[in-house]
Design a protein that fits this description.
single chain, 216 residues, alpha/beta, 7-stranded mixed sheet, 6 helices, 32% helix, globular, binds glycinamide ribonucleotide
Length: 216
């Protein structure tokens, strides 16, 4: 059973999707700890409801960002966490945590990286006028939203979309690909080679979609 630690800052709907797949035994993992940087995070309520240990770590209590991440690292190592999940954790991860978990930190981002990194990926996509956007699960490295890509899922962007409507469409897929990426990891099927992540024993369909649809 893969031991995971989850870091979150807010609502925690991705955290919930992971809990659900563990409870229905689709995902062979156990959540050892939820760590939040925000005492108001709704993710805490979800942890309480499902009997998951949680910890609020206030970044303001540390003299540097590095010291904050040393504390997070120590709490994760104490619980023998093998994989760290950033489920809506709105901070840039620093060296002490990265060094302790090389290619063992996963993030979800609400855009098709490398497009629209950083905050408000969905708003960036709407404002830019792209016709397709989506979400990306990737390993975390020292830059923002830049590590090796594990899974991406695409959705159309409609002409009348707002940040809210596009976010809703993307979120449904986030809830599917994040637990799936963790499952592939738990099954030992992800192999990182430079920028690329190989998925062992996986056959991809050769298909496409366009927005708007084109004549075939
Ligand atoms: C999700 O849409 C996630 O992709 C995004 O924050 C939201 C968290 O929702 N993360 C980022 O933008 C990271 N750059 P949740 O708390 O309900 O899972």
């Amino acid at each position: 059973m893969l031991k995971i630690g989850v870091l979150a800052s807010g609502r925690g709907s991705n955290f919930q999707a992971i809990i659900d797949e563990i409870e229905t035994e689709i995902l062979p993992a156990s959540i050892e700890i939820l760590i939040v940087d925000n005492p108001e995070a709704y993710a805490i309520e979800r942890a309480k409801k499902h009997g998951i240990a949680y910890l609020y770590i206030n970044p303001k209590n540390f003299p540097t960002k590095e010291a904050f991440y040393e504390k997070i690292r120590d709490e994760l190592l104490l619980r023998e966490v093998e994989l760290v999940i950033l489920a809506g954790f709105m901070r840039i991860v620093k060296k002490p945590l990265l060094d302790a978990f090389p290619n063992r930190i996963m993030n979800i981002h609400p855009a098709l990286l490398p497009s629209f990194p950083g905050l408000h990926g969905q708003k960036q996509a709407v404002d830019y006028g792209v016709r397709i956007s989506g979400c990306t699960v990737h390993f975390v490295d020292e830059s923002v939203d830049s590590g090796p890509v594990i899974i991406q899922a695409a959705v159309p962007v409609h002409p009348d979309d707002t940040e809210e409507t596009l976010s809703e469409r993307i979120l449904k897929l986030e809830h599917r690909i994040f637990p799936e990426a963790i499952r592939l990891y738990a099954e030992g099927r992800l192999k990182v080679e430079g920028r690329k992540v190989k998925i062992l024993n996986y056959k991809l369909p050769d298909t496409y979609f366009t927005n708007p649809e084109i004549r075939q």
